[in-house]
Amino acid sequence: MKPKKVPGIPSQVRGGFQDTESIKKFSSSEEVDLKFDILKKRFFEITKWSEYCPNGAEFKLYDTAGEQVNRSPEIGDYIKILPTKINNPKTEDYYWVRIDLIDKSNPDRIMLQFRPSKLPGNEFAGKTFHFHSAAATSTFVISKGSDYIKMAVYERNQQPNKNTTFANSIKNMISSVFGTSKIRWKSLADELINLN
């Protein structure tokens, strides 16, 4: 199976990839427009994504200085992700990604692109806090057609993060090989477009 060729999505060069899509159909273009407006609002409320994740994942938005914020995301912001609900999580239990791209140029299609990152304020030093290396990208796309809305996540160039401790390197290799993120993103995409 080959990665989908989608405009704006980075080319697949090495490592793994995942294509995750959720589609909801409607009977009229008016309903599509209405539901897409609701989806856009949800899409940019990253701190509320936790409400749509049945596995208890947690999402928090941070600015470039590492301060937690509650607003629409901006390029250069960070997202702190706790993949599953656990009591008293430690620093290494969280994953961090940086927002590299926000594309609103097409009114029928909006993109957010993330990349595994170091902690905010440590772009040039420190370890990457993610199970994928910083070469990987995850591009979240919402779009609409004449009778549907869609949310998709396109992951490219997934390689295990070895810029960490030995124990975490082993854990990252397992997570990367088994594609645990696909299950999480599919659940999130299904719930975000579930607008009933």
How would you describe what is shown here?
With about 200 residues, the chain is α+β, with helices and mostly antiparallel strands. The protein is about 20% helix and about 30% strand. It contains three helices and eight strands, in the order βαβββββββαα. Strands 1-8-7-6-5-4-2-3 form an eight-stranded antiparallel β-sheet. Mean pLDDT is about 80; it is low at about 165-180.
Total helices: the number is 3
Unreliable spans are 165-179
Give the overall form: globular
Largest sheet: 8 strands, antiparallel
Classify the beta-strand content into a percent band.
25-35%
**If you average the pLDDT, what whole number results?**
82
Radius of gyration: 17 Å
Structure classification: alpha+beta
User: SSE string, helix = H, strand = E?
Assistant: EHEEEEEEEHH
User: Assembly state here?
Assistant: single chain
| Spatial order of strands in the largest sheet | 1-8-7-6-5-4-2-3
Distance between the termini: 33 Å
Percent helix, as a range, is 10-25%
Number of strands: 8
